[in-house]
Amino acid sequence: MPKPSIPKGTRDFSPVEMAKRNYIFNTIREVYALYGYRQIETPAMENLSTLMGKYGEEGDKLLFKILNSGDFMRGISPADLGEGTTGHLAAQLCEKGLRYDLTVPFARYVVQHRDELQMPFKRYQLQPVWRADRPQKGRYREFYQCDADVVGSDSLLNEVELMQIIDTVFNRLGIRICIHINNRKILTGMANLIGQPDKIVEITTAIDKLDKIGIDNVRTELAEAGIPADAIAKLEPLFLISGDNDSQLDAIAAMLANDEIGTKGVEEVRFVLDTIKPLGLNNVIALDLTLARGLNYYTGCIFEVKALDVEIGSITGGGRYDNLTGIFGMPDISGVGISFGADRIYDVLNQLDLYPPNAVQGAQVLFINFGQAEAARAMQVATQLRQAGIAAEVYPDNAKMKKQMSYANTLGVPYVALIGETELQSGIVTLKDMHSGEQTQLTPEQIIEKVNR
Length: 453
Prior knowledge:
Blueprint: H1 15-34, E1 38-39, E2 45-47, H2 48-51, H3 56-61, E3 65-67, H4 78-83, H5 86-93, E4 94-98, H6 103-112, E5 121-130, E6 142-151, H7 157-173, E7 177-183, H8 184-193, H9 200-207, H10 210-224, H11 229-240, H12 245-255, H13 260-276, E8 284-287, E9 301-307, E10 316-321, E11 335-340, H14 342-352, E12 365-367, H15 372-387, E13 392-394, H16 401-411, E14 415-418, H17 421-426, E15 429-433, E16 439-442, H18 444-452
Parallel strand pairs: 1-5, 7-8, 12-13, 12-14
Antiparallel strand pairs: 2-4, 3-4, 5-6, 6-11, 7-9, 9-10, 10-11, 14-15, 15-16
């Protein structure tokens, strides 16, 4: 009989791993709610007509498709099988697919429920998504996204609030971060400035690598992308812009003074940074003129978050988009959103050992089972503790003391409660501190006070 296994690119999570992940999810969930965002959920599977054509050709290939139930081959002719086009055949065999992200299902939700929604609509969603990608380190076929979006409002106060959310979440998690900000309109302005508006993707892809490969290699990459030498020379001042956020904004504003779109981008970033200054964020915000995210998608401010104490990629990202629902025939709904990378945040917290002790703890008190009468009393006291908010567990079997204590040790239970014959008669419980080894005789009320303290 083959050994049981799971599909490549998926993972099991142990109780300790789940406790750590829930600490992250609960922190994000609490902060979203703190800012007035409300939770929705959408089905794991969507109609393929909803998903197909929304992620580009490469993205469509990564959709997990679900075979129609029942006789899924019904209506398929030998000619269909002989055509050899898997896409054509899949369209006949599969009407549904697993969601690739939370954004397209959210757009579908907004259009489908538009008459019920109060605009602006602030929603958050913490759910798994699936991609038929090649599994490799850090890339999975099933993973969680933790998204928040506000749609139906053009106000830049939404951008400010999302940056506050980012700051609050990472402050609560104890991770020091830098929030990088740029604007899609500034990038468009730069492409216009050098007379290469059609080459915006190539330009931003190259300058995004400035820190990693240096100016000379960026020049080479731009030239290989077919950008003329005189146009590359016009970009040179961009590479030399330095100083604080205000100085950089002044410099790029001067460069883009004659470009309407670029100037609008500078004004938007300036508003966001000026509005956020008096709000007292704990983390650094840096204008990053080389930042480029999802160029066919974002239309305004874009964000990316990097951890300062761990070498890892972006741990949160997002930005403003102007046509989320246009893919479903409802144009001109503007929105702005962010997504926390839960898996990368998990890795950062593990590397820096930032989990609070109670985040991974199960029961705080384990009652040893000395027999039927003693266990019955233990159940009563455990119920009292649970009513006071203390996680308590009664060992189910009257096993040897050593085995029960070993169970408590392995699970890291901080206190063991002993109710033997003597305790049964006196109504007192002997409480053992597993860290210090100290034993004290206490009433149930005193145990509650001690453990809570």
